[in-house]
Known about the structure:
three-stranded mixed sheet; 21% strand
Amino acid sequence: ICRRLELHGTIDKNYKQSVLDRENFGSTALKSGAAIPHGNIEFVKKTCVYFYISKTPIIWDNDRVYIIILISINREDKKYIKNILRSILELVENSKNIMDLKNCKDTLSIIRYIEGVLND
């Protein structure tokens, strides 16, 4: 994920290590089946919330996750962190949402599902 974001100019080369360092401090996996890794704001050029959805579980620390949501927020957008996290947690705190997202067939259905959860 980080390599792709670096190629798109979203993060710099040090961001991946900052994500790994943060993960070593404590797992960002949730029991619902999602992980929400994030790194140091200093290495983010453009704010991005990247979703990776897997049909099969990924072993993350001692948990099984289906969705990885990499949060990369730059200094200018720091003021939005609480709102972004609140929305993400609203989405991933329920394991039903994780399973429904995992079963979405395409990007548009994923977007519509997320909008539906967050607009309820």
